Amino acid sequence: MAERAALRKLLRQKRQALSATEQQSASVQLEQQLIQLPQIQAAKTIAVYLANDGEIDLTRFCHWCWHHDKQLCLPVLHPFSKHHLLFLNYQPNSPMHRNRFGIFEPELAAPQVVPLEQLDTILLPLVGFDGDANRLGMGGGFYDRTLAHWQLQRHVNAALIGVAHDCQQVPELPIASWDVPLDIIVTPSTYHRAL
């Protein structure tokens, strides 16, 4: 755990150190990488996130999705199930508020909840990754807890795609038993597929 915490600190500093120009360039390049993926081309409903803490920005990709009639969803902190997420429909005019971490999310409204079973692709933010598509998150375990039960039930074959800056790659990540494996990690310059 100490090794993961130290890695988290180092890699968060790396992505936070990127200039506004570097962040913008990464966002443009990432959009081009994502829209070429068969999983994105085929998807009707895609879960995205709003960048925070130096994460790579998906705004351009979101606009591409809306232009191509893809339904987008954003994660929302689950109001009753601690350390879990719900996914809500996300439109350019969705009413938003900041959650307890200061991250914008749609205002919770039951008709806007999209069941996990309806998601074709989930784009996950991450702090670090390795060449085998292993993901190191922020440490809260929200995605891992939310997706673990869902994967065990095998209700869905949605693609799990991590997205990150190239500088967030490390030679090898220490893996924990609760880490949900990803299918692929996409950066502005390349793809890393799970073995």
Automatic annotation (TrEMBL):
The record's annotation in InterPro entries points to: FTHF_cligase (IPR002698), FTHF_cligase-like_sf (IPR024185), NagB/RpiA_transferase-like (IPR037171)
Would I find Ligase among this entry's keywords?
A: yes
* Reactions listed under catalytic activity: (6S)-5-formyl-5,6,7,8-tetrahydrofolate + ATP = (6R)-5,10-methenyltetrahydrofolate + ADP + phosphate
Q: Which GO terms describe its molecular function?
A: 5-formyltetrahydrofolate cyclo-ligase activity
- What domain of life is recorded for the organism? Bacteria
Known SUPFAM superfamilies for this protein?
NagB/RpiA/CoA transferase-like (SSF100950)
* Cofactor(s) listed in the protein's UniProt record: Mg(2+)
Query: Per UniProt, which keywords does this protein have?
Result: ATP-binding, Ligase, Magnesium, Metal-binding, Nucleotide-binding
The EC designation for this entry is 6.3.3.2
Q: Which family does it belong to?
A: Belongs to the 5-formyltetrahydrofolate cyclo-ligase family.
**Protein's UniProt name:** 5-formyltetrahydrofolate cyclo-ligase
